Amino acid sequence: MSSSLEKNMLILRSSDGEEFIVPEVVAVMSKAIKNMVEDECASNTIPVPNVDANILAMVIEFCKKHDESEAEAASDLKTFDSEFVNRGQEALYDLITAANFRDVKELLDALCQNVAEMIKGKSVHHIRIQFLGYQLFEILTSNFIWNIWCDRDFD
Amino acid sequence: MGLRRRKIKARKNNEDPKQKEDNQQHESSMEDLPHDLSLNILSRLPVSSLVPVKLVCKSWYNFATSLHHEPHDHNNNKKNPCLLVLSTPPHDQNHCIAEINVLYEIDNQDRYGVISKSIKQPMNHNILNVNTTLSCNGLLCLICLKNNFSYRVCIFNPLTEEYKYLPDMPSVSQTVTRLRNCKYIDNEAYLYQRFGFGFNPSTNEYKVVRIAGIHNVTHMVTLKKKKPFNWDFDSKNFKQKVDVFTLSRTGDWRSNIDMPIACPVESSGAVVNGAIHWLCSGRGQFKESCIVVSFDLSDEKFRVIPNPPDCEMGQGCELLVLGGCLAITDYYARQIDIWVMQEHGVKGSWTKEIVIIENLPRIVFERAKLNVSNQRSFRSEESFATQSIACPNK
Description:
CATH architecture of the largest domain in chain A: 2-Layer Sandwich
Helix content of chain B: 10-25%
Protein name (chain A): SKP1-like protein 4
Shape of chain A: elongated
Strand content of chain B: 35-45%
CATH topology of the largest domain in chain A: Potassium Channel Kv1.1, Chain A
Oligomer: heterodimer
Largest sheet of chain A: 3 strands, mixed
Number of helices of chain A: 9
Distance between the termini of chain A: 76 Å
Radius of gyration of chain B: 26 Å
Organism (chain A): Camellia lanceoleosa
Organism (chain B): Camellia lanceoleosa
CATH class of the largest domain in chain A: Alpha Beta
Number of strands of chain B: 22
Structural class of chain A: mainly alpha
Radius of gyration of chain A: 21 Å
Largest sheet of chain B: 6 strands, antiparallel
Protein name (chain B): F-box protein
Shape of chain B: globular
Number of strands of chain A: 3
């Protein structure tokens, strides 16, 4: 790396060994990395364990956008956020854990809000299938048992 | 653990490769998220969505219930006041309650939305109908008429549809004395029963208050017939009894409070400043001018609130809460005055805030007044409504 980079560029290494060159202002949006930089225990490359290249790229994309558009209208940022978090189940899960481990507050907020929106107004069965990996036949059996349970005469 | 086992079983049963892939994907399900993250997500849900969430799995049930019981922030609901309106269809002639009720929410920007379309009121085959509905902070207190014509109180949270019947109220006493061949039955009879429901912010407790006017009636029973021995109203035989129920884990009715002053005209009172206020008339004299009596929920004492100046407190008056202050609507010939007490308990702070004078036909006013009272019957700040009933579940 050239010396000009050293001042405000950091290198992040994902769990599967891929390296990303990121401006420091963007990297320190993660509180965990910020602490490392402030304590000066960060050498040239900062390892980011538990996060693979794919997810790390997404996180960096998010942070970059938020860093650039600080001056921009908040509504622009909001549409970007809502499009960004609109992903599949698995990516969403990985992103949430990554944001939690790296302590990126804005990303965590946006993701949690998104999941909450997905849960809102759904039925029990829907939530079970979508979020907890239940199978349809399990639901049907449990429903059957539940109906028997409910038919008992209380009081 | 059980869920895992079921998942493995599911995989064995389904040899379809696509299904298998699905299963692997679900290995990283939302259930495996750290607890603080699950809480973070669930805390963003509105209260009504927490009901299905509770039924999803055990850990989510625990999260949702812990969210319920989280101590709520009083400042928060002052910032975001909202009004919940529960509209219930009129009772039909058989005194049955139709089961479809609609719960609307109106927020501070006058937007409204339907929260739930079919709220089932807690019903029990012992209960004839709901006589009165009181409300405080989004919780409803239903005064139900039982089929033996006594009242039973039910606390109901319409957002989560949780309910709790309170234990039976202490009933009137009956003593029997025998003299020669006559039997004298000393019966206590209710002249009226009025209720109040309020929240005490200093102890974070809800309290239900019953004020009962009891009159002694003595029956003389001979071998042939039973007839009332004395039944005229007599202040010697009349007493007013106050029972208080505190909603807590070991709640019961306590009845050691005297109410010497007056009798409330109607059950619905206004809850301001940790005290329930009723419009009361002089004892036994219902058409006289009224006074406002407050019942402090923390020290459980009755006090008289001074009337507004130049306001004839009579039949057209109603109490309500306006902007956190006690207010009186005075309704007379095509005019509604709304008096607001800026400082609670200070006579000089009564101000005539709003005067509505319109040359509208009387019927419109009648309806307007009805709407006000309907809305008052269910006034809430939503963050309060997240609190569930602090009573053990049945």
